[in-house]
Design brief:
This protein is α+β, with helices and mostly antiparallel strands. Helices cover 30% and strands 23% of the residues. The protein contains 12 helices and 14 strands. Strand 6 and strand 7 (222-230) form a beta hairpin.
Length: 425
């Protein structure tokens, strides 16, 4: 039976792609409420039939994803687990534009995905024309009758919403609308940028991918700093680009509302949070190299947000990672190494350990003074928060983690009103 289904999928793909090639210019993106073309549904359904022979799902989710997107990699295992929980009523068909070879390799090595042998659409060049997107995950909700039910972001594909949909209490899900033709290299203002100095801060722009950086146009001798849909931490990273890329625990934010820094709510609250706390910024300046823009970016951000940002040297207690005298350089086997956010079975180095410990805001700084230029692979305890166990594990492998008082560079960002109150006191 499975060989027959595989053959059916093969011929469906051939016939469908032949039909698409004949009418490729006529493809109109589909919206919620639209009916899916028969040829497209004939392409999707055989993949669904391969999942549950003889079973017809009541809801089909097609999550478009990428192996380089952290949000996608967290979403897919959760959706596939929900598919199992709903026992055939829900079908999940992942789709990606990435080639089959790399995707199959990634899937086999991912600790949460490799246990699922679900069919998926790899190297997709067709579905994304009917459901265009700029950001992943991009989830299309389909009824097996051929109706588009919803098109949402990944954080909307929750157990509660799926349950409501299956129970016939279909909620109105927020529509995900991406700007697929956006050019991040183009000015945010439609003006002659070769002759004008300007800086602007705009509100959150739904549908645009978040990115930031500096650009230099040598032909026009024009420098540009830009950030698209970024929150305060990443906006200010543009202003302190020359501070040696200090890790999160070397940034001290003293704000009355720390919720401005990161979203901690439930998925349906995310759009409102983004609208209040994400911004697009651009500074355009002819005749000045990008290396001179950072102080101007800092001034702009401080003025707009009412903040006071600066670099400060402070005496703090920190952890220092060093080599023990006379110690060798042990190597851990891949199977025993601790997973610091990568696939299980990958070896982790002392570089990754330091980066992991420094990526926790509010934790003591960790300095790497091992002097090792090459990565040292380590066996680490499961509980990375237990410094005593961590220290013991490192000592067994020729390293030491000790507390010291050091004078270190920090980025301090406070509210101007707080600064004024402190000076009055």
């Amino acid at each position: 039976m499975k060989s027959f289904i595989s053959l059916l999928i093969f011929w469906a793909s051939i016939l469908f792609c032949h039909g698409i090639n004949a009418q490729q210019k006529d493809i109109v993106p589909l919206q919620p409420g639209d009916t899916i073309p028969h040829a497209l549904m004939s392409y999707i359904l055989p993949h669904i039939s391969q999942k549950e022979e003889g079973a017809t799902p009541e809801l089909i989710l097609v999550p478009f994803w990428s192996s380089t997107c952290g949000t996608s990699k967290r979403l897919l295992p959760r959706l596939l687990e929900l598919e199992g929980e709903f026992g055939g009523r829900l079908a999940v068909l992942p789709a990606t534009r990435e080639a089959p070879g790399p995707i199959d390799s990634f899937w086999r090595e991912h600790p949460q995905l490799r246990q699922h042998t679900t069919p998926q659409l790899r190297g997709d060049t067709v579905l994304r024309r009917y459901f265009p997107y700029a950001l992943v995950p991009h989830v299309v909700w389909l009824h097996p009758s051929g109706k588009v039910v919803a098109i949402t972001a990944g954080d909307v594909a929750t157990r509660d919403y799926i349950t409501a949909m299956l129970q016939g209490n279909a909620p109105t899900l927020p529509l995900k609308e991406d700007v697929v033709d956006f050019d991040p290299n183009a000015p945010l203002l439609a003006i002659d940028t070769s002759r004008r100095y300007y800086s602007i801060i705009q509100a959150y722009r739904p549908g645009l991918p978040g990115q930031l950086g500096y650009q230099w146009d040598s032909s026009r001798q024009n420098a540009r700093a830009y950030a698209i849909n970024m929150g305060l931490p990443l906006l200010y990273s543009l202003a302190f680009i020359g501070a040696g890329e200090l890790p999160p625990n070397r940034w001290h934010w003293q704000l009355r509302d720390t919720g401005r820094l990161q979203f901690w709510g439930v998925p349906h609250e995310a759009p409102a949070w983004k609208a209040q706390n994400l911004f697009s910024y651009e500074l355009n300046l002819p005749g000045l190299p990008p290396s001179r823009l950072a102080p101007l970016v800092q001034q702009d951000l401080d003025r707009f947000f009412g903040l006071h940002s600066r670099l400060e040297q402070r005496w703090v207690t920190c952890w220092v990672l060093t080599r023990r005298k006379g110690a060798g350089t042990s190597r851990a086997t891949p199977a025993n190494s601790h997973d610091l956010g990568k696939g299980a079975g990958e070896r982790q180095t002392h570089f990754q350990l330091v980066r992991h410990l420094n990526n926790r805001p509010g934790s003591p700084p960790v300095l790497n003074e091992t002097g090792l230029k090459q990565p040292l692979y380590l066996e680490l305890p499961d509980n990375m928060e237990d410094f005593r166990s961590l220290k013991q594990a490192l000592q067994q492998q020729g390293l030491n983690l000790k507390k010291e008082r050091r004078r270190l560079l920090f980025i301090l960002i406070t509210e101007k009103e707080s600064d004024q109150s402190a000076s009055n006191n």
